[in-house]
Amino acid sequence: MADSGVTDGPGKKGDIERVKAEGKELTKEEKQRLRKEKKQQKKNKEKKDDKASQKSEKEKKPVSSAAPASQPLTQNTAQKAPSAVPAPAPVPVPASEAPAPADKPAKSKAELKAERRARQEAERASKQNKKGDVGQQATAGKPKAPPSELQPVVKRLPEHIQVDNPDVLKKLAKKLERQQIPLRSDYGYKVSLFSHLHQYSRKAPLTQQLSIPSSVIHPAIVRLGLQYSQGIVAGSNARSVALLHAFKQVIRDYTTPPNEELSRDLVNKLKPYISFLNQCRPLSASMGNAIKYIKKEISNISSQCKEEEAKSHLLDCIERYINEKIILAAEAIARSSIEKISDGDVILVYGCSSLVNHILCEAFKKGRKFRVIVVDSRPRLEGREALRRLVQKGISCTYVLISAVSYILPEVSKVFLGAHALLANGYVMSRVGTSQIALVAKAFNVPVLVCCETYKFCERVQTDSFVSNELDDPDDLIVTRKGKTQLEHWQEVPSLGLLNLVYDVTPPDFVDLVITELGMIPCTSVPVVLRVKNVDQ
Amino acid sequence: MELQAVLMAAGGGSRMTDLTYSTPKPMLPVGNKPLMWYPLNLLERVGFEEVIVITTKEVQKMMSTDQKMKLEVKMKLDVECIQEDGDMGTADALRHIQHKIKTDILVVSCDLITDVALHEVVDLFRAHNATLAMLMSKAHEFTETVPGQKGKKKTAEQRDFVGVDQSGKRLLFMANEADLEDGLSIRKSIMRKHPRMHIKTGLVDAHLYCLKKAVVDFLTENKSISSIRGELVPYLVRKQFSKTTNSHKIKDNTDDQNQKMNDGSTNHELLISSCNEPLLQLAQKRSCWNDHRGDMSEAYHGGKLRCYVHIMDQGLCYRVNTLAAYIEANRLAPKLFEDPAVHPSAVISERCQMGSDSIIGAQCQVADKTSIKRSTIGNSTTVKEKVKVTNSIIMHGVTIEEGCNIQGSVICSNAVIGRGADLKYCLVGNGQRIEPEAERTNEVIVGTDQLMEI
Question: Which of A513, B306, B397, B402 is the most interior residue, by most CB within 10 Å?
Answer without folding.
Answer: B306
